[in-house]
Amino acid sequence: MQGIRKSLFSLLLLVLIITLTLSACGSKDSAGGSGESSEKVLNVFNWSDYFSDSVIKKFEEETGIKVNYSTFSSNEEMYAKLSTGNSNYDVTVVTTNFIELLIKEGLVEKINKDNIPNLQHIGEEFSGNYADPNDEYSVPYLWGFYPIAVNEEITDKKVEGIKDLFDPSFENNLAIMDDPRPVIGSALQALGYSPNTTNEEEIKEAGELLQELKPNIKAVDTESKNFLMSKEAKAVITYSGDAYIAKRENPNIKVIFPKEGILTWQEGLVIPKNAPHKENAEKFIDFINRPEIMKELLLEYPYGTSNVEAAKLLPEEVRKETQFVEEFKQGELLKDVGEATQMYDRVWTEFRQ
């Protein structure tokens, strides 16, 4: 009898060990790095002015997924967080040249397109750019350019390009965005060079041109549009969406495509490597690309959209201030410049001193 009890106890102990082992494995699969978590959570990492509160709330109500929203102020800050390879973020918005860099360094996951049927609304002209030719790692999102915006109410100077901003009438009256590549890129275009040059002498020359502009610069700020809206600056170099937000507040603000060349940007939605809730991220990307949801975002944030069906839903006045498709095609996107990044960084550091 004692032997039977002992055998029965051993059998129960074995069953318990197997059960606990399987349970542990299951927990690892559901909450670990596989991205197939059953947890109703989504960790978003984004610019501050890209997803409206109302859209986030609709997603949460429809799916039951809680969105944790964190922001960054520059691509460099975003890259520093994602470069750890274990950032705990599930989805982020990345500018094209940094998409290229993240793919090269293996810091983003391939996207399961079967989970994103609303990809059908993305226009061909916005798909398959140089950074991700087959759109394997990113979903085209918003796009725009880096314009000059001028308050014609407080300046008589006719502005057509970057070189016009060197005029003495702009002394201590110019605000520019705190973003090295487009600022240096604009200087390079003003000199007749490519904004993606890796030529050391050309980059150095662009830095010297920016130094010449310093007496006119009142502020270097990510929210440079605020200086224009408050009339603290007569003109700004900024992001197209910010320029049109300012114009909505003050019709005297004119948005200008610089005559030296159109410097464009495009951004995509990506899923960082080891995202803990990959399927939730794909649900979110699909949700964002519903034409009626994208329309809601664009009414608040006036950027170009890669979602052509959403563009059709926009009021005419909003289409006029956002959907510059032909100019976008003519423009030049910023690219990853590899080791030349160090030269750009050096020029920017010297400029900011």
TrEMBL record:
- Which cellular component terms (GO) are annotated to the entry? periplasmic space
Query: Which InterPro entries does UniProt cross-reference here?
Result: SBP, Sperm_putr-bd
Keyword line: Periplasm, Signal, Transport
Q: Report a single Gene Ontology molecular function.
A: polyamine binding
Q: Where in the cell is it found?
A: Periplasm
Q: One of this protein's Pfam families, by short name?
A: SBP_bac_8
Xref: PROSITE patterns: PROKAR_LIPOPROTEIN
| Protein name, per record | Spermidine/putrescine ABC transporter substrate-binding protein
**Taxonomic source organism:** Siminovitchia acidinfaciens
- Source species taxonomy: Bacteria, Bacillati, Bacillota, Bacilli, Bacillales
